[in-house]
Amino acid sequence: MPEYLSAHIQERLAAQAHELGIRVDVRGDVVHLRGEVVSEERRREVEEAARAAAEGHRICNEVSVVPVGEPDGEERLS
Amino acid sequence: MIRVAAAGDLHVGPEVAGAYRARLHGLADQADVFLVAGDLTRHGTVEEGRVAAGELRDLGVPVITVLGNHDYHSDAEEEIADVLRDAGVTVLENEGTVLDCGGTRLGVAGGKGFGGGFQGKCASDFGEPEMKAFVRHAKDVAARFGGALLGLDADVRVSLTHYAPVDDTLEGEPPEIYPFLGSYLLGEAIDAAGVELAIHGHAHKGTEKGLTQGGVRVRNVALPVIQHAYALYTLDPHPAPAR
């Protein structure tokens, strides 16, 4: 049923892209993806998995790539 | 003073081999130990485990890790642990280890942990066998992890899990999935042992800083949360509170 499409997309994201933390919202014929992944390639994989599970829908991929640089400070716990 | 670097949820694979390690070249100057809070891989394959081992070997400081739920996905968790150990990484599963950091003994007890939920909002050991198995597994894991914490003979003690011991650091995650992100049983074990710091990962949309009911500082070091290759914490040794 179309009302459950977002859940089925999330299942596909877990099974195919192995990403569990992506938010999926279906509005009309557009699938919105939000969340964070560690590389541009993962971002594309998420989009491809969503596309495979949502035939006929446009994918709006708002997933961002986490910039993982060196830390800019330390926290002193005393 | 003990300097702890920590990160979780690296999710490495062959396609990103070397990329994470490239961010670690300053680590040995900044930290005495590197704690990794699980989910080193994505699919939990041995191949990914080898990539993770390559990222973490010979960093110039001891590396201590636990495995996460992703590392179990392909039923190869033991092989992954072996690959990591071959690379010199200490892999803890409900056990502890003690390091000498410039004359101060740092004790780290680690385990993957498990879900189940938090006080007033958790599953019960009741009903169908599947539900009882879920809850009993959470209890069993927490009991063994707690034993490892209590067994640490050290000046500074740190807890390392993948799953969250408190719900503070889950803020930002949908409340409906909290029971799959951690368990109060882990927090209870941490408070019973009275450690200085509790590190975990797993909750990518959560927040970094939290507190157990007993006042132990909790830090969620999942990479999407800390937004850096690792977080740095410094700890002063002092006697654990009497309990």
Automatic annotation (TrEMBL), chain A:
<feature type="domain" description="BON">
    <location>
        <begin position="1"/>
        <end position="67"/>
    </location>
</feature>
<dbReference type="InterPro" id="IPR007055">
    <property type="entry name" value="BON_dom"/>
</dbReference>
<protein>
    <submittedName>
        <fullName>BON domain-containing protein</fullName>
    </submittedName>
</protein>
<dbReference type="Pfam" id="PF04972">
    <property type="entry name" value="BON"/>
</dbReference>
UniProtKB/TrEMBL annotation, chain B:
<dbReference type="Pfam" id="PF00149">
    <property type="entry name" value="Metallophos"/>
</dbReference>
<dbReference type="InterPro" id="IPR051158">
    <property type="entry name" value="Metallophosphoesterase_sf"/>
</dbReference>
<keyword id="KW-0479">Metal-binding</keyword>
<dbReference type="InterPro" id="IPR004843">
    <property type="entry name" value="Calcineurin-like_PHP"/>
</dbReference>
<dbReference type="InterPro" id="IPR029052">
    <property type="entry name" value="Metallo-depent_PP-like"/>
</dbReference>
<dbReference type="InterPro" id="IPR016538">
    <property type="entry name" value="UCP008292"/>
</dbReference>
<feature type="domain" description="Calcineurin-like phosphoesterase">
    <location>
        <begin position="2"/>
        <end position="205"/>
    </location>
</feature>
<keyword id="KW-0378">Hydrolase</keyword>
<protein>
    <submittedName>
        <fullName>Metallophosphoesterase</fullName>
    </submittedName>
</protein>
